[in-house]
Structures are given as C-alpha cells and as structure tokens.
Amino acid sequence: MTMTISSLVPALRKLPEHASEAVINEIFIPPFLEALGFTSNEVVPQFNTGQGIVDKAARKNTPNDIFLETESRPYIILEFKGKNCNFAPNYADYKNAVHQLKTYLLAPNCQTVQWGIISNSSRVQLFRKHGKAIFPATKCLPINEANIDEVVTSIRKKIERPAKALTIAVYNNKGGVGKTTTTVNLAGILSWLGKKVLVVDFDHNQLDLTTSLGKSPSHGKVYEALVNRERELKSVIETYSYKILKTDRKIGFDLIPADLKITEITESELTGYLQLHTLYQKLEPLKYVYDYILIDAPPNWKLFSKLPVYAADVVLMPTKHNSLFSLENAAVAIAKFLPEVQERKIDGSPIALPIFFNGEEITPHQLTVAQETVDRIISNYQKERQFDLLPYFYPKYGQANRNKDISQVPRFAHIANSAFSHIPAVYAYKIAYDYYKNLVKEYFIQ
Q: Which positions make up the signal peptide (predicted)?
C-alpha cells in the first residue's frame, strides 16, 4: 500500500498537546501501521510476548495464515507512550522505553521478531534484532507534519528489505587481549552451526588472522577494492575450508585478508583515499549475502580502528581479568569512542556488547579482585562523566538480582596453539567448541 502524507498529517493534527498513550493508540497508531504497510488483520493489539504485553505486534499474512487469528511468528513489535514521556536522549523516560522494548524483543514469544519501534508521536525510533543482538536502525527521530512522510517511508523501506548479516567488530584499544583468536573461533563456531560467515582481517600491520588460517596477505588487491569506487570487496574474498576428520563434510567461512600495501602507506596519505564510512559502504552489498560479518580490528583509536567500528552494528570487546588496562580501555571505548561514531553515523549504531574475560583461568580470589576493579571503574564513570557502564560490565545485574557474572572463555592451550596448524580451535577440540558455542549463545543466537 502506498503511503501518502495525508494519511498521517491529519492524525498528528488531531493529537492534543499532551496526548495520553490511550489517545495516541486510538488516533495515531492505526494510520501509522497502515503507513508501514500493515492491514488491520495483520496487527495484534496487546500482544503477549511471554515477558509482558507489548502494545502492537504485526506480520504480513500468508494465504493460509492470518496473523490476527494465529498470533504466531510476529515480525515487528511496537511500544507507544504518551506525549508527556520525554524521548530526548539520556532522559529516564527514553531509557526505560528502550529497556522495555529490548525485554520484549528477547521474550519467548518474540523469537521471530526482527524489528522493534518505540514512539510517543513526537519522536520515533526503529531497532533491529538479529538473534540476541539488538541495535538501533535509526536514531530517535523527531516527527512532525513536515517530515512524517519521509521518516515513516524510510522506516518502511528498512523493515521490508532487511540486511541479512549482523556486522561485528571485535575491538579493544588494548592489544594482547585475544581479538584475533576470538574472531577466528567465532567464525568457526558460527559456520559449524550452519551460518554463512565472512571474516575481515583489518589489522594490516599484524596480519595475524590471515596467517593463522594459512593464507597469504594481499599485495594491493584489498587496498584497490577499498579506494577504487569501481571495485567491489567481493572480488578479494577467499574461502577457508576444513574437512572434518573421518567424514566427507567440509566446513568453513570466507575471508578478506590483510593487505601488505596498506602497511607501506602512512595514515596521513590513507586519509586522502579512505573516509570513515568507506568500509561500511563497501561491506553494504555483502550484508545481504552473509549471516555474520566479523571484523578483526587493530588496537588504538586511529583510522584503521575507526573504520571497522563505524562499519559494525555491534562491537564485541574481549578483556583480561588481570589486565587493568584492558578493562579501562574497554570503558574508554564504550563511553568515548563509540559515542563519537554513533553521533556521526546516520542510524546511531554501533552499540557495545557486554565485555567478556578472555583466555585466562580465574581463581575465586582473582575474580573478586577483578570485580572490585570493575566496580571502581563503573563508579568513577558514573560520578565523573554521568555515564552508566553497568550494563556493559554486569549485564545481568538488577535491583532484584545483584548478579555480577561476566562471561568467560577460560585459558586453554590448544586455542592459542591451533594457529600453528592453521585450524580454528573449535574445529579441532571439543572443549574449544563448547567454550565458543556458549559464547555465541550468550551474545548472538537466540
């Protein structure tokens, strides 16, 4: 159904200045959903998510399945508030609405949901859900009579043609925390679980990911694909495959290798050819091909760290429980670096995923010391910057449940040593398989 501006402008004009949620539900929501392309029998009001009741759920009907009748497999959920609910960034009303929507999106009856919307009829924001990962697909946008047509049309285009891939930058400003090992083994376990995966080695100085897979670095091809508008990244993709022992099955993933030419060019020279959005734009066509795109980002906060973070939907940050610098650098990235990118990127992504402890055995005493360090970091950022790090360090912590658990991938010698045999540890060792399967279930697969 084609939306015209007349379908929503009258509704906006009818809304009182301080319209309640009930009034918005009566006057604004029906034409809003129609503008998004849903008919009345494709919308279920007061949908039971299994973790509370969301205002609306919607899905296109199929010939033998009317969503209003079956209430099964919802595609998008919508939560509306009254106009008095302040949706300005960083306000409590806005944060509470986002938290509520995310709770619904991860609820048992919403496993098929791919999108979530919050609105108070003065602002609207679209969120994308990919497995367990939830991230903004738009900023929280003001809506009025002048722009409502453009905003809703852009939202409709997104929900009708979603990108297939979740793009993950594996990053920490501190080196030596296992970013490359994490990237390789996440790719390995995701491909083992049947996902189509692309890995991008963007640490051109180290080349570790490329060489750990027994591949040779590029000698200018990746560079040309990045700087030349006529070249596509798919032209430099290679395949890594592994034959499972005692079977005929092969598994693997695709790889964009590191490029030696890039290491020969100074960063000041590169900035003349590469913009912050270059990798993001070059990866865009591939987001409709792969289920996951994993980018191994170098430490520091220079151009070649900024490009993969800008390209990402979410950022995964390995840390070490016994490395104060890795924890502090994760905090800096979450509170300073990512907001810089979010401000410049049109959709407001990427978001940081909760940290995890990587590659070290942790005794109860060491865990206590690590938690004390994390507590201090959280407290300092709250006092000095009014930035809440709690969800990024203790994602399960709440008023009713003071849970300070942090996900862990313990040290296991074969995980690191598997690089010498050019095989991801998850392909060769069951214990590594179990560790990383738990990690992807914690962060990515619902």
A: none
